[in-house]
Each structure stands twice: as C-alpha cells, then as structure tokens.
Amino acid sequence: MAYHPFRHLRLKILALVLASVLWLTVAGEHVVERILRVPLEFRNIPTQLEVVGDPPSTVDVRLRGSSALLSRLEPGEVVAVLDLGNARPGSRLFHIRNDEVRSPYGVEVAQVVPGTLAIEFEKSGHRTVPVVAPVEGDPAPGFVIGPVTAEPSMVDVIGPESRLKKLDHATTEPVSVNGMKENVRDVVAVGLTDSAVRLVRPQDVTVIVNVVPAPVERELTGVPVRARNLGHGLRHAMSPDTIAVSVRGRRDALTNVRPDTVGAYVDVDGLGAGQYTLEVQFEPAQQFAVTKSTPQVVNVTIK
C-alpha cells in the first residue's frame, strides 16, 4: 500500500499542536531550589538499645525541581530516614545521605543540613516499680483519708538503665475524695513522670482510698502507774501513783477506754534501793494512742 502523507491530516496537526504546547509548558518552567524543613525518622533501632537525650526530629533539605512541582509539595511528602541498625552504646555519628530522603518523582534532593547527626544510645533495662496514687480534695467534715492502695500495686517499666535507677514509682491520675464519707474506688490510668521511660504495656489500676472517721481525743484522770521489773524482795512507793492522760483514736473505740486499761508504767529493771525520777511509759494499744501525760515523770522510792 502506498504511503499518503496527507492521510489523517487533521489528527496529525492536532498531535503536533499538543506536543508543541506540552514542550512549551515544560520548557517554560524554571528549575529552582527550595530549602524545606522535613521530619526525621529513625529506622532499625536495635531492640537492646534506647535513644537518650534530645535527638533532632527534623532536618533541613535543599530540594531541586520545577517551581510548580515544589510549590505543590504537601507536608509529609518529603521525609528524611536515618538507619540506626549499626548503633552501639555511647555517642555515635550518623550520616544522612541524599538518597535516604524520600521525595516525590521529579524532585531531586540536593543537600541535607546537617548531613551528620550525633545521637547517644544506652542499654535498655527493665524494672518493676510500685504504683502511687495521688489523692485530691478533702473528705466530709469529721472524716479523714486513711490508707490508699492500688490493684495491681506494681507495674513493669522499660527504658534507659540510668533513668530506671532513678525511678522509684509510677503514678496515676488523681483520685478525688472531695466531700466523701465512705471509701472511694476508682479505675485510673497509670503514667510515669519521666518521659525517657515507659510502661511495658498501657495499663489501668483500681485505686481504693479509705475514708474513715476523724480521730478524737479524750482526757482520762486517775490512770494508775505501775512499776515493772522490780527486783526480788524489794518494795517501792510512787508519787504520784496516778496521772492524767490524753488519748486519741476513733470515737467508738474510745468509748470503752477506762483509766486502768491505759497501761501506764515505769521500768525499774536493775534499780536497787534509792530514790529515782522516772519517765512514764505506756503499753502499745491498737484502739488508741496516748498523746500526752500529766505529769510525764514520777518519783519512785525503792526499799
């Protein structure tokens, strides 16, 4: 079949016009350079190491391309990636190569600033620490805050070994007891005040705040004072032989406290005949505590 140069002439002219327009468009775009601050990603961090200190999160990248293409760049389209696969404990230097910067087609990476970064690494450790729950607010009048417990009471934490050594507890969200007359039970999140360490897994705990009646004081007079550990065959005389005491405890517990149940005594162990001034002591009690005695000492004569 013979070649006819004018066959489909209209289509050929249209193709020539489109090609010319495209060429003029491309040729008319100037190649420019622009400096862009981009995020820095760390890749292949060894599992036994932790990045410590305050490593940079961004770098400046000088990009080359058409003005139109660079002006259309969206955040996140250009990202610098730093491979830490060869990291070791201590302060290390890493180079960021141009080909380690991800960029769209048609955009050339001309330079990364800074091209070298100093990053410090430390061995990763593990520790189990107690949970301490802060309490905010005041209970209702006549009540006070008692023991505060958390379930579970311990959590597992990981991070740089040096920071773990300084960590003595994990904390929780504050638990409010404002205006309460009974125990408060709340489920709250656990956190750490040191951002360099972290929980092995995100965790909630149940915090129980005991709200108990406020202790009251009661004055008792005629409390007998006894001599303890008096030597064999010896006798004693005490002046005064009764004292007044102040006891503190729960109101219901103090109702049944009598002077002879306080347990006041002086210890005369090893003392022979003579006159002595001795301090009054008290047997420990579960229901109350002695806050004051009048007088605090007594005169003891041993014969």
Which geometry do the CA atoms define? elongated
How many domains? Answer: 3
Number of strands: 24
Distance between the ends: 150 Å
What does this structure look like?
- The chain is mainly beta and about 300 residues long.
- It folds into three domains: about 30-115, RNA Polymerase Alpha Subunit, Chain A, domain 2, CATH 2.170.120.30; about 125-215, YbbR-like domain (RNA Polymerase Alpha Subunit, Chain A, domain 2); about 215-300, Beta Complex (RNA Polymerase Alpha Subunit, Chain A, domain 2).
- The chain is built from four helices and 24 strands.
- It has helices spanning about 10-30, 65-70, 160-165, 250-255; strands at about 30-45, 50, 60-65, 80-85, 90-95, 100, 110-115, 115-130, 135, 145-150, 155-160, 170, 175, 185-190, 200, 205-215, 215-230, 235-240, 240-250, 265, 275-280, 280, 290-295, 295-300.
- The strands form five sheets. Strands 2, 5, 8, 10, 11, 12, 14, 15 and 16 form a nine-stranded mixed sheet that branches. It has a five-stranded mixed sheet with strand order 6-4-1-3-7.
- The N and C termini lie far apart (about 150 Å).
- The relative contact order is 0.10.
Summarize the entry for a quick read.
The protein is mostly beta strands and 303 residues long. It folds into 3 domains: 32-114, Beta Complex (RNA Polymerase Alpha Subunit, Chain A, domain 2), CATH 2.170.120.30; 124-213, Beta Complex (RNA Polymerase Alpha Subunit, Chain A, domain 2); 216-302, Beta Complex (RNA Polymerase Alpha Subunit, Chain A, domain 2).
